[in-house]
Amino acid sequence: MLTPAKKRKLAAALQAYRKRYLIKKYKELDESGTRLMINAFLENVLGYLSIEEIRTEYMIRGTYADYVIQIGGKRYFLVEVKALPIELSAKHLRQAVNYGANEGIDWALLTNGRHFEFYRILFNKPIESRRIFSIDLADAKQADEHVEFLQYLHKASVLKKGLDALWNKSQALDAYSIAGILHSKPVINFLRRELKKKYNSKLSEAEVIEALRNALTSNIDMEKVKPPRARRGRKNSASS
After folding, report:
1. Where are the domains of the chain?
2. For labelling, which of 67, 108, 230, 238 has a CA lying 20 to 30 Å from the CA of 214?
3. Is 63 buried (19+), middle (13-18) or exposed (0-12) by CB count in 10 A?
4. What are phi and psi of 134, to 5 degrees?
């Protein structure tokens, strides 16, 4: 969603954040100190304006969410913060999801300043959530991955429906979406044709579906999987 130039700027901001805060002397930081880290993260890394767009201690039915990102009166996602030494847990997630569900906010970012988990709140009965990504910003080796995920939360992307794009991508890559397409008739017919060409064996639709289901549910060693080579087109023997 971000331009290459803005992605490079985001990468530099993340590197600065990591060097400034994710160091040994802050490893026992309390929750109030961690919130100062998140203030810097939301403002300097993701590009939101302090006070105007970063709403702190946002009241929701008598209790308070740590942050709500709001631009022009529209609430995009909430942020729930735990102290840096505390591992994020299912209990913390339930708290964040409840805040979002009670206020009609679709997205929740759960963080301790180092680990960042981003969730889509699903307004089903009962309320559910789906984790979109989980990253550890202290792991510099995954810096490129951090940029790829966090670009969708950047203000520049959010204003261009970046969260919608992230949700669409997540749904497209969901195991059930992929499995559904793999079981569609065009795909099954394609598999039957390819298997017949390679093994000279005429297989029924039911046989291919059963084999496909077995492949999807088996613990396959992917190192042993060898995709078929692309066939070369026939050369035109006619002289020019």
Report:
1. 4-162, 175-217
2. 230
3. exposed
4. -140, 120
